[in-house]
Amino acid sequence: MRANVLTDARLVKLAGQFAWLDIDTEQPRNFAFVEQFPIEAWPTVFVIDPATERVALRWMGTATAVELEKLLLGAARTLRRDGTDAAGAALSRGAALASARKYGEAAAAYREALQAGGPKWPTRPEAADALLQSLSMAHDPQPCAEAARGLLPTLPHGSPAARVAAAGLGCANSIAAPAARAEAIAVLEPAARGALVFPGVLADDRSGLYEALLGARRVSGDPKGVKAVAAEWLGWIEAESAGATTPLARSAFDGARLSAAMALGDVPRALPALEASARALPDQYFALAYLARGQLEAGRPREAAATAKAAAALADGPRKVNILLVEARALRAGGDLAGARVAVAEAIRHGEGLPEAVRPTSVLKQARALRDELAGPPATRGG
Amino acid sequence: MHPLLLALALAAAAPASAAGTLPFVADDYARALADARARNVPLVVDVWAPW
Question: What are the chain A neighbours of B5 within 8 Å (beta carbons)?
């Protein structure tokens, strides 16, 4: 989004109407910002009222320039009028609630916005997207999938509808009851597949659709289907990334490339591209981190450990925990248990030293589990 | 999602840069907030991380 959307002339012309800030959440100097404005998806775009620091827009994930223009201007209008436009005010209230992680209440506000705005409200697709974001974050998959099913037929074919389809199918995949899950997937899987050809769908959103489609085949117990989707996804990534004009732009596909190759069971196919990114971007931890994970998954643990070590030396934020965890796993796979213990201890120490708002709790949990495994079984009494 | 956009120094009195890019302040909330207050405009924040 930073490369293509925020440089779009449509947004550049708004320069004077806003002040502009970018925040890299891996930088320790930004941890205080993240404590004040919790982040759960990257990228996230905020519009903040400078007088009160109230959040008027909190947009998780990608958006096209057209959508972002609409969202920014809508948030600015709401701040100026503050409540005179019922739909815009409800949308803004939803953003503030989502920013406070009150996703259930945020979803209610977004539903109110959709109701107030009616079927011809220009911001309806974005409000539908925001509703799905909140329902998805609320971890209540049934209403999330149902909302997607209800909204999709009413949305124009475009980027927001593609994200609604992906989020809805992702929620359907998480429904615990098998019959309800299968029923939701039966509707939302074709919708997500259809969204792959919607006009203007961003690369990240297309990968989001493939991830949801992959998940649908996985929870349906269809390993052949998983591989078919993974092969299609990886083929698309390879074709799309071939047109990238810089190593950095090409590396934007590396995360999805690795995920698709892992799902396909053919990680070696991804390695040349990951190696090329690491060679071209030797001072970027993420390029080395993806390569390390790929090497580990491809059964090359010694190389993976060395690559992860180099990546960890370049990282200083929350993602360093995961890089050190990959190093520890690689060392263990290579038979260096003492080294693995050191790396996992470093991962835990680094993670626990981070402020709570940026602490990667699930990765830390995995690190603690690995530490316990490496320590061996607990001593037993008696004998 | 990638650090493709170089952070640009903000010229407070010149809202649009000559280069045709948005005048982002990099990693300095206090400074950007002060600028927004001074100009009485909303603050847009793009939160990202290198992937």
Answer: 2-3, 6-7, 22
Inter-chain contact B48–A2, Cβ cutoff 8 Å? yes
Collapsed DSSP state (helix, strand, coil) of residue A127: helix
In this prediction, the residues of chain A whose per-residue pLDDT falls under 70 are 2-3, 82-84, 377-383
CA angle, A326 then A327 then A329, to 5°: 65
| Domain residue limits at B23 | 1-51
Cβ–Cβ contact A370 with B under 8 A? no
Q: How many CA atoms lie within 13 A of A296 on its CB side?
A: 25
Give the pLDDT score at B20: 66
> For chain B, what is the domain count?
1
The beta-carbon neighbor of A284 closest among B22, B24, B50 is: B50
pLDDT score for B10: 26
**CA-CA distances (angstroms) from residue A42 to A59, A203, A230, A248, A274?**
10, 14, 23, 17, 21
Higher pLDDT pick, A72 / B8: A72
Taking the CA of residue B51 and the nearest CA in chain A, the distance in Å comes to 5
Query: What's the CATH fold of domain A1-130?
Result: Glutaredoxin (3.40.30)
pTM: 0.87
Taking a contact as any Cβ pair under 8 Å apart, which residues of chain A between 220 and 239 contact chain B? none
**Token pair for residue A166?**
């992906």
Minimal CA separation from B19 to chain A, in Å: 10
